[in-house]
Write a structure and sequence with these properties.
The chain is 79% helix and 0% strand. The model has no long low-confidence stretch (mean pLDDT 88). It has helices spanning 5-21, 26-35, 40-60, 65-85, 93-115, 118-128, 131-144, 146-154, 156-159, 171-188, 192-207, 216-246. The chain is an all-alpha fold and 248 residues long. It contains 12 helices and no strands. Helix 2 crosses helix 3 (40-60). The radius of gyration is 24 Å and the shape is globular. The protein folds into 2 domains: 5-127, no CATH class; 131-246, no CATH class. It starts with a helix and ends with a helix.
Length: 248
């Protein structure tokens, strides 16, 4: 791979981000969810992406009809992906993530075709499917979902005594999932000090405004849940790190 190839990918990514997040008014998105493939603003959105992608390619490459073809591929697939997304629930983060993932995958494949670096795919796929990568992905899955169930069962005798009125639905669960994701990431990255910072930050944010006596029960419940979550994830993370380090 030459140093010339990377700026092409970067410009294509910038063109995508500009088209989706700068040059797309909210009214265009709303109409797309209402009219789907019949939306006139969806067509305008696609034309913006084609123009931006073509400009990005023209900056670094000599003009040719093939560049127009690559830009049209990006535009056509963008239209298809956005139409499919328009039938989903726009308030669900999973559809946003999938939408952007497919857009970026198309851009990556177009870049591969432009730079003629098909050998990257031949080496990338075995790497992504390697035992070490799969083991790490499974570890993240475990700390995010099964651990949530385990901690909920452990804390059930205390949670039954809690008054959840005024609390955000599932907020505690999501906070726990995020903190376990971060803890495992910090352990794998050898950033153990960051775990202490995370615990301190959560303690300050959670308990800073809870000085009244009637808050003691809920504070102790949250503290118990936090300690269980941290302890389980740190122990599991150390085991994962040891197994990953020992794997060739």
């Amino acid at each position: 791979m030459s140093a010339f190839d990377i700026p092409i990918l970067m410009l294509l990514l910038f063109a995508h981000l500009a088209g989706d997040f700068i040059f797309q008014p909210l009214a265009w998105v709303d109409e797309r969810y209402e009219k789907h493939w019949k939306s006139k603003w969806l067509c305008m959105h696609v034309l913006v992406h084609i123009a931006l992608s073509l400009t990005a390619l023209f900056i670094l490459m000599p003009a040719s009809w093939s560049l127009l073809g690559f830009a049209l591929i990006i535009g056509a697939t963008h239209w298809l992906i956005d139409v499919l997304k328009s039938y989903s629930d726009k308030n669900k983060i999973i559809w946003f993530v999938l939408d952007q993932t497919f857009h970026l995958l198309v851009i990556f494949l177009v870049w591969i075709a432009i730079s003629n670096q098909w050998s990257i795919l031949a080496s990338l796929i075995p790497t992504l499917l390697s035992e070490k990568i799969m083991f790490i992905l499974i570890a993240y899955f475990i700390v995010i979902w099964p651990f949530s169930i385990a901690i909920s069962i452990i804390c059930k005798s205390w949670s039954d005594q809690m008054d959840t009125m005024g609390a955000l639905p599932n907020a505690g669960k999501r906070i726990g999932q995020i903190e376990r994701f971060l803890i495992l990431t910090f352990i794998l990255a050898n950033e153990f000090a960051a775990i202490g910072f995370l615990l301190a930050a959560k303690s300050i944010l959670r308990f800073g405004d809870s000085k009244e006596p009637n808050h003691r029960k809920i504070n102790e419940y949250v503290l118990v849940g936090t300690m269980i979550s941290f302890s389980m994830t740190i122990a599991f993370g150390m085991l994962v790190k040891m197994l990953v380090s020992s794997h060739p």
